[in-house]
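During data preparation, a discrete fold description was generated, as reproduced here:
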Amino acid sequence: MPDVKRLFQKIPRLVPALVLLAIFGIVRGPFEDGIRDRLVASKLLAPPPAQSAFEQMGQSALMGTLGGLRSLVATFLTLEAFEHFSTKSWDDLRQTYQIITALEPRDESHWVSVIWHLGINATANMEIDERLPAFERERRFKEYAFQAIDFAERGITQIPESSAIRIQLAEVYREKLKDDCATARVYGDAIGLPDAPGYVRRFHGYFMARCPGREEEAYAYLLGLYREGDHQHLPTLIKEIKNLEEKLGVPQPRRIPDADPDRPQKAPRRPPNLLPGDILVPFSFDDLRKIRG
């Protein structure tokens, strides 16, 4: 029992050491990769195994080394990642989440967080950071967006049933890369997954409608949603269908009867004897008979 107690007393000192070792391995990686690539090009070294094998090896090493401390170290690193977010140290944040997601690959929240940090926050920072020249901001903007996409794809590999990862990925495509086709694809992949919100079906159709070459497919899809009933007759869905009716030249008799939600409705006619400050209140013929007495 005293040995167990001493072990737990050592844990606070062990965690920083383990973290430093893990970070050292990540920082050392690019340097070693450059040397290895030059040796392979010179035919002095055989090509390395596939990247997925390296990732599995790294993950297995972390699992074996840390054992039951994985969750504790991941929690510590999550706090560190938040500090990187606060100071806008995006590269440090990415490296920290490389370790976090390797420690707990089945924790959905880690993948969602890093996609949000890199794909939304880091890219937003590049849009407004005047300390960098425009070309460098644009380069980093794309770099962070594609790093977020890479994390999302790896997260989906680890948790194929995750709708939250896909929804966060769709936001990167929609808000930052303005890629309507990719956005439609990702929302479509989320349909039917556990905990997927109901709006993913409509959003899949909305962005498909804006994807060049898929207008007819989108029209059929959105019309199918419209025919499900009044609960689907939302202004955006009606507007998208009407846009497609115009674009595809759908004959008037076959168009949906709803009014265009973006067009102002005609105001009721004012009686000529109504003063500007008077309020027009509708009333029935029974009310009129009562007034006349």
Observations:
- DSSP finds twelve helices and no strands in the chain.
- Residues 2-41 form the longest helix (40 residues).
- The mean pLDDT is 81.
- The chain has three domains: 10-46, 66-178, 180-252.
